[in-house]
Design brief:
alpha+beta; 20 helices; two-stranded antiparallel ribbon; single chain; Hydrophobic Seed Protein; Beta Polymerase, domain 2; Hypothetical protein af1432; 7-stranded mixed sheet
Length: about 400
């Protein structure tokens, strides 16, 4: 029985990066031996165990064979006679197929160290093309390590393209896809994730609504980058540079989907794109079963982001309607996330990344003014039920008019 550290822990140590999760592979052992040593089984499809003290995952060395469609369409074989090299060859990338023993000796049969030095994301074997989830994984690694200069090998990108054209991506479950997408959006350069998916044809399969934005022009006066797709990538890049949460990054990715529906004869203007895009945002939300907070913010940002940009010009009544739409009284955080999504949209324009965005503080101030209107005086005047709601609305409108005039 031999135990090796594998995967990300070895890769990141060699890159000089912090190591968070540690995975282990066990060669020459049986399930019975693992149980006898106190390991707790957790794998439903193949033998994976939790260490009795550390809780880290230990998997028996295994081989796999394609037996159906999608990520789960594999038959696994784990036994004491499976070698370390046989276990490593089934992994996705060479940089993830390096093993390390307890003496820090490396086993690297597929030249992962060379690819780490050359900053290349390269598949281990042709079996890479059997698992459609690997398209998303490689794009996610590209987003994670882009800052270190990593790129996807041409031959790997070609396999990803073949996978994208094969129909296999459609076999991925919403849950598995969302797990990869959400992790990728939280990487340092999530725009690289989208670009790599586009380069291999996967974006058109997974999110045709986003793919449709590329090549669609916008007015150069407001968008020096002109291309709506490039603008979307820039907005996503800004959201990562400013350390925004997943909800904001998801909204940034989807905020302009309506522009993909604008008839060519109306280019570069996109009248009412905020409303035409809502059905597309809803479709993407449902396709990946995005969490409720991500779904809600994406729809609200899609519908109201131009209100955010024009905040200083809005009438007090329109401003109040905006605040009411976000329920700023009970859900202040959601409105704050809307504001920063609008700011990322404003900054995601070529040459305007450092621009100021006074609308942000103006909107925060308006929300505070509306929230500051007291209910108790109205109750003391005898208002109740629907009448109380209308009276409260009138007082908030009056306060917002005063706030607007004071600015």
């Amino acid at each position: 029985m031999q135990i090796y550290k594998v995967g990300g822990a070895v890769r990141d140590r060699l890159l000089g990066l912090p190591v968070t999760d540690v995975d282990w592979v066990v060669v020459g052992a049986t399930t019975e031996e693992m149980l006898a040593r106190g390991y707790r089984p957790v794998g439903a499809d193949f033998p994976v165990f939790l260490h009795p003290k550390t809780g880290e995952e230990y998997a028996l060395a295994r081989t796999e064979r394609k037996s159906g469609r999608g990520y789960g369409g594999f038959t696994f074989h784990a036994s004491p006679d499976v070698t370390l090299e046989e276990d490593l060859v089934r992994r996705d990338l060479t940089i993830n197929a390096i093993a390390e023993d307890d003496q820090h000796n490396l086993t690297d049969p597929y030249h992962g160290q060379r690819d780490l030095e050359e900053r290349i994301l390269r598949h281990v074997s042709p079996a890479f093309a059997e698992d459609p989830l690997r398209v998303l994984r490689v794009a996610r690694f590209a987003a994670r390590y882009a800052g270190l200069g990593f790129t996807v090998a041409a031959e790997t990108l070609e396999l990803m393209r073949q996978l994208s054209e094969s129909g296999e991506l459609e076999a991925l479950t919403a849950e598995r896809s969302w797990k990869e997408i959400s992790r990728a959006l939280m990487e340092d350069q999530p725009q690289v994730f989208i670009q790599v998916l586009r380069d291999c044809g996967a974006l058109n399969v997974l999110m045709p609504e986003v793919e449709a934005l590329f090549g669609v022009p916008q007015p150069e006066a407001h968008h020096p980058e002109i291309d709506t797709g490039l603008h979307t990538l820039s907005v996503l890049e800004q959201s990562a540079l400013h350390k925004q949460p997943l909800t904001v990054r998801w909204a940034c990715l989807l905020h302009d989907l309506g522009k993909g529906l604008t008839p060519e004869e109306e280019w570069p203007r996109h009248i009412a794109h905020e409303h035409t895009g809502l059905k597309l945002i809803k479709a993407v939300n449902e396709r990946f079963k995005a969490p409720k907070d991500c779904q809600e913010l994406a729809l609200l940002v899609g519908q109201y982001h131009t209100h955010g940009h024009r905040a200083l010009e809005l009438k007090a009544s329109t401003l109040l309607e905006l605040l009411q739409s976000f329920d700023v009284y009970r859900r202040p955080q959601r409105f704050e996330e809307f504001i920063v999504a609008c700011e990322m949209d404003a900054r995601g324009r070529k040459g305007l990344e450092q621009r100021s965005y006074p609308q942000a503080d103006y909107l925060r101030g308006a929300a505070n003014v509306a929230r500051g209107v007291a209910v108790q005086p109205l109750l003391e005047k005898g208002f109740k039920g629907p009448e109380l709601g209308e009276a409260l609305k009138r007082e908030r409108l009056k306060a917002l008019k005063a706030y607007r005039e004071a600015r």
